[in-house]
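A common beginner's mistake is to predict each chain separately and then try to dock the pieces by hand. The better habit, illustrated here, is to supply every component at once so that their relative placement is modeled jointly.
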Amino acid sequence: MAGGLSARLGVDVTLVRVGFVLAAIFGAFGVALYLVLWLVMPMAGQPRCIAARVASDRRGILLALTVLPALAATTVVFAALHTGVLPSLLWPFFLSVAALILIWRNCDPEERAFIRQAVEAVIHLQTRPAHRRRVLVVRLGAGVVVIALGLALLTLSQRAPSVSIVRPVIGAVLVLAGIVDLFGPWWLRLARDVVDERQARIRAEDRADLAARVHDSVLQTLALIQRSAGEPRRVVQLARAQERELRAWLFDGELPGTAGDGAVSLVAGVKLIAGEVEGDHKIPVEVVTVGDCPLDDRLRALLAAAREAILNAAKWSGASTVSLYAEVERDKVSVFVRDRGRGFDPDQVAEDRRGIAHSIQARMLRVGGRATVRTAPGEGTEVELTVGRDGRR
Amino acid sequence: MSDEAARRPRVFLVDDHHLFRAGVRAELKDAVSVVGEADEVGAAVELIGERNPDVVLLDVHLPGGGGQAVIEAVRGLAPEVRFLALSVSDAPEDVIAVIRAGARGYVTKAISGPELIDAVRRVAGGDAVFSPRLAGFVLDAFAALAPGAAAPSVDPELDQLSTREREVLRLIARGYTYKEVARDLSISTKTVETHVSAVLRKLQLSTRHQLTYWATERRLI
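With all components supplied together, the output reads:
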């Protein structure tokens, strides 16, 4: 449109567009001018404008003329009802109808499709099944009638200002109800589309996140397992580590790759050290915990001692698994590390093998805790670590 | 172990993972006779009613309602069938739910072949099987019902563990076998089994609804 005008006038197309927008903002004149130009200017690639085609459309004109008897009839009816104001509104209404019929018949298929799409979106014409269509007709009819009733009430009350406020209010409510009836479904569908789109986006993001995590953990591990197929122990260890990580993710909500990083609770810490030793020494550590509490310095010392105990079991016991049990009670926290390995005689430990004395017992004593080792050759070993909890309930 | 328990128990497998069933069957085949298997609730209930096994090895998570649904349906058909729950699940509420439905024990799928055979024999003989993990779950659950914080209940006896029961469970959680527990506490293995069965009964009969979903509000004491 603007393009055609600029071509004819020799002005830049952007300037023409800006001009139209400004004219539209400062008054209906701009809009009217645009519409008139749309009618009288031929579209690019078309020999004749819409107005010219209308002039030669005899059947269209005849069809448009049929509104005249309708106009006459309604005028007579309204005159008989003494409603006065309405006949003056009837003229523009019927003229518009006639003009729209002519324009519709003569505009381009492309423009027709555009108008149809706009109208259908608004009143939801495209409902296929016959019964739905009937419902639609009833709904549209009811909407139009209600709006007409409302308008009638509004205009009548203007003529009789002494009448109470009730009538215009009812009129306004009726008009609103009619509008909601006509356009409600469209609004609903728009809202539903927005919600659907949002949900679809969230689902897509979730899936992408899941895929990324599965790739970072499970798929990487599977690749490693394939490459280590010749080393059964390595395969078992990889599978165990992956299993631990997946469990932490699925049941405890810890993201893979972050398991235990800066663990804040005892259970998280216990799982972290168990996982580390398991990974380093290829021995399964069965963890059982009862209760949980936040980590403090004493509990960190307890964890460090527990880690040492698990390491000892992994290195020296020769057992196939290590059991770790941690229990949080009201007044103390206990950790038991047990293996069914070869055990040892505590009195026979050489002076230079001070792991237990230093790392475990001294560490526990420093934080006011206690470490007890129960063992005998052939009986396995159990290390019990206990530390008190202060100032808590 | 008595002669009765030592005879080959008739075992039925319920698990939706074909590979896992095949693995268990291979591990058990010398010690038990596997009389059937199923991969979902409906088929499991029907076949268990038909074959009447001694022990059903039951996956906690199953399509069609979970292991719990199988136990509840079979109870009416064949009440003498015993269930041993077997799961990779770490979710305590799932495990406790299956035990409360009537399973005689719970072991993790990482269990070794000989341990599994031992567990099956024990369940077939009428005993309860507590893995360290189940013992931990149970201690946790009953600790959540500690007296004081608790509201009055129908039968307080059922809502608390005795000191001895607590000691037994704690040792099991630490990885002790029943025999080791018995030696540590200077009691007979039979007495350990009695305590464990009593705990199982309390777990199944306690009306405290907290027991069902204590895990959802894992406390920090």
